Structure formats: structure tokens, C-alpha cells
Amino acid sequence: MRLYSVVAAGGFRRYATYRVATAAGVFTNTVFGFIVAYTYMALWETRPRLGGYDMSEALTYVWLGQALLAACAMMGGGFEEEMVERIRTGDIAVDLYRPVDLQLWWLAGDLGRAAFQLLGRGVVPMALGALAFDLALPGSPVTWVAFLVSVTLGAVVSFALRFLVALSAFWLLDGAGAMQISMLAGLFFSGMVLPLTLFPGLLGEVARAMPWSSLLQVPADVFLGKHTGWGLVRAYAFQAGWAVALLLAGRLLQSVATRRVVVQGG
Amino acid sequence: MAETGAERAGRAETGAERAGRAEAGAEWFEEAGFDRRSRAVEGVRAYALIVAMWVRSTLAYRASFVMTAAANFMVTAFDFVTIMLMFTHVDALAGYSLPEVALLYGTSATAFGLSDLLMGSVERLGRRVRDGTLDTLLVRPVPVLAQIAADRFALRRVGRLTQGLVVLGYALVSVDVDWTPLKVLMLPLMVLTGAAIFGAVFVAGAAFQFWAQDASQVQHAFTYGGTTLLQYPPAVFAKELVRGVTFVVPLAFVSWLPTLYVLDRDYPLGLPSWAAFLGPAVACGCLVLAGLAWRTGLRSYRSTGS
């Protein structure tokens, strides 16, 4: 356990060293926040209470999306590129010899990264958004804590999904295609392009039931106080259920993959 | 600085100097201002050669190319899917119908797609400054900008361009416009103008990375952010934002001004309709400024020395 907390701290520190990149990311998230916020305003002016959100809730949703984009890695970006590269070069064989669990090792590092991204790239855009627009920020500290728990679960689901994508490199060798498909799914089904409550009919139902909704839609609804009491428990169970199922799938795939590992270039 | 032609002429020519006369001749040409055209031609030629090389290497893995180009098409298509999803809830966005928004989207996305295909690679400059591989490009007798623009030329970006063209095609058949010769002429003009303006943004962004090497994300705010902004009617945005992208970073000339002319709509800032025709001049101005920024950046470059 101590080992994994050290790895997580390492993941945090590693991303904390890229100060200019973090500032640049904050700038970009803020610019996009403004652009998207104005388009939502035009939409909600015509249709107040669209998708069950009022105007300020919809604007809050926009800025939550920008704040969580890097932390929950909706467009990818994190350990998976490095892991695919290690599989491609064969360095993964060295990792498999180590007396640590491969999946937990990468999970710890990625959670450290997510924690940094939430602080480094989440807080400032959210604060700027709150200054420029009338946002629906939770009054009760309990809601903030509930939100952080949901974000943590979302980060684990995000990791579990990307771990599966990275493992596909054992078969595909080139992970670029799988990573791109994963990025597309993350962008669309997390609710990053539009809240999933606005997706029509069956598409909406399917989108809300898929694991990606754990990355933004669920944490955002917790933040906006849409899930309370048993509803909150159900939301957590949904996220935790996907996390466990996907982590187990990753574990299974990992054992299949390591049995057929071919060290390249050796 | 090298000795001038007058100094050289004042001395007797030695054997070694005679051998170097061809080079000195080239220098004289440069001093006399003949370099501009030939350097530009040389740059375009080198760009084409490097691009051809990357295209050949891309097409060696055909299945991979088709997949990545399709993914590129899809990821940008989501922008338009978002707009279509919005229009399942409303009939008009800030007073604009779906075909009208599609026209804004199509022109902006096509212009950006063209620019991204041709110049998008320059955003890799920061990485090359960091790892020191920019030095390799500096010692080659070819303009650095041409090399960096062609660096790892990503043919898959035709996916993005195709997506823009598809939406533009849809917009043109469905939009209700009284076409005049000037309006028809405006279409190719605005796509080329837009591509040039985005190209200037790409070059200026790359020049910025000479100082802030990790800041390629800042560039994304102006490139990807810019094209996202232009896909919606200007009436959606706050006046200050519209002013900013009209007079400071003149992205408005990519699609807003020319498209609003085609649609017979007034520009929110009350600019006259002929302002739509200033696009090419604005684009030239942007390119000159971006070129100056690039030269300043390149001159200030110090290698990492690793």
C-alpha cells in the first residue's frame, strides 16, 4: 500500500513539473469554456429548462466539463501512451518481472496525475467561469465532498477504460487507432459535447448507461444536486459498478496478454 | 558580418577566394535583395519534397492511414453532430437556421482543415526545441519554416478537411440565398483567405513556442478554439469577444464577415458590407506579421546544448 501511495505521489509530482504546459492548458480550457458557455446561453435562452437544467446550471455544466476534461482524461492523455510504447518496444517485459501488480502500479500513477490535473487545470477555469457567469455553485460543503467522491470514481473508471485500450496494443502493436476510438467515445459519451440528458430517445438512454457517463455527466449532476439521498447512493453504485467490472476485465485481459507476450527487438 | 563586395573587390583575388567566388556571388545576390523570391521558391520546393516523403511513408501502412483519417473525420464531425443535436431542441440559434449555421460551419471548417493539413505540423516546434532536434533543421540549407511545416506531414488530416467540405456541400444545397456573381466569387475567396489567416495563426503560435516551449496548448485556443467560435453566428457571443476576433486577432474575416455578406445579414458591430471583401488584405497583413514574429523567434533561439 505504501508503495502505491509513493507511485501516486510520483504521478502528481511528475505533472506538477510542467508549469508552463499547465498554464497553457488552463488558458485553453478557459477560452473553450467561454465559447461553449455562450453557445449554451443561446440555446437555453430559447429553451429554458432544457434537459432538466436551468440557465445557470447549464453554464455550470460547461465549466465543470472544462475543469474535469484533463482530470478524468475524457480525450485520453495520461499513462496509456507510455504503456502502449512500452508494449511496442518490449520494455513491458521488464515491468512484468517487477514484484508489483502491473494494473495497480499504473492506476496509482494515473490517480496521482488526475489529482494534479484537478487542482492545476480544474480550479482556475472554474473560478474564472464563476466570475464571468452566474453559476449554480453548491452551498453545502457536503455536496462538494460528494462531488469529489464522484470525480474520484470517475477517474478510476477512466483509468480502467484506458488500461483496456493500452492492453489492446499486445495484439495490435500500434495503439494509435484504439486510442483514437477511445478518445472519440470519451468525448461523445461522457457528455462533454452536450449533456447526455439532451441526447434524444434511445441514444440518450444508451449513452447514460455506458461507463463514459461516469467521467462527467454523473459528477456534474452530483455537483448540481441532482442526486441526493438514495439517488446519490445509486449514482455511486453505478460508477463503482463500472469501475469494478472494467478493472476485472482489464485484469483478465492482462493475464491473457502476458501469456502471449512477445518481446520485440530482443 | 561578412565582408562587403566593395572590400572584396579592393584586393587581389587569391586562389582560395576564387574557389569561393560562387558562394560570394550568392551572397551578393542576397544583399541585393534577390534572395526573397529564390528563397521562397526553394522553401516551397523543399516543403513539397518533404511532404511527398511523409505521404509515401504514410501510404506504406494503408489500413492504418484509412483508420486514422476516418477517426479524424469522426472527431471533427462531432462538432457538427453537437450542432444538429442542438437543433433537435430549437428551430433557430440566435436567429439563425440550421442551413445558415451549416454555411458558417462549412466555410470555417474547410478553411481551417486546409490550413491544418498544410501548416498544422508547426505546432510540433516546441517539442523540437525541448529535445534539441531543431538544431538538425538549422544546419540544412533549406528554410526552417518550410521544414517544420512539412515535418511529419499528417495526411490523415484530410479527414478534417473532408468533413468541412461535406458540411459546406450540405449548406450550399439547403441554404436559401439569392446568388449573385459576387456572392459566388466570395466562396472560394473566403476559403483561401481563411486558410491564410489560420496559417498566420499557426506560424505565430509556433514562433511563440521559441520562448514558451511547453505552450502548444495556447496555440490550440486560437486554432481549434477559433474554428469552434466561427462555427456559431456572431450574435451568440458577447460584443467584446466579437470585437476581439474582428480587430485584434481578425479571425472574423475567415467566415463571419464573408458568410454574413452572402446571407445578406448585418454584422453585429455595424461594419459596412464591403468589409467582407477586405479579407485578402487582412490575410496578407496577418502573414507579414506572423513572418516577422517567426524571424524574431528564430533569431532568439538558443539550443538546449544537450
TrEMBL record, chain A:
<dbReference type="Pfam" id="PF06182">
    <property type="entry name" value="ABC2_membrane_6"/>
</dbReference>
<feature type="transmembrane region" description="Helical">
    <location>
        <begin position="61"/>
        <end position="79"/>
    </location>
</feature>
<dbReference type="InterPro" id="IPR010390">
    <property type="entry name" value="ABC-2_transporter-like"/>
</dbReference>
<feature type="transmembrane region" description="Helical">
    <location>
        <begin position="144"/>
        <end position="172"/>
    </location>
</feature>
<keyword id="KW-1133">Transmembrane helix</keyword>
<feature type="transmembrane region" description="Helical">
    <location>
        <begin position="184"/>
        <end position="203"/>
    </location>
</feature>
<protein>
    <submittedName>
        <fullName>ABC transporter permease</fullName>
    </submittedName>
</protein>
<feature type="transmembrane region" description="Helical">
    <location>
        <begin position="20"/>
        <end position="41"/>
    </location>
</feature>
<keyword id="KW-0812">Transmembrane</keyword>
<keyword id="KW-0472">Membrane</keyword>
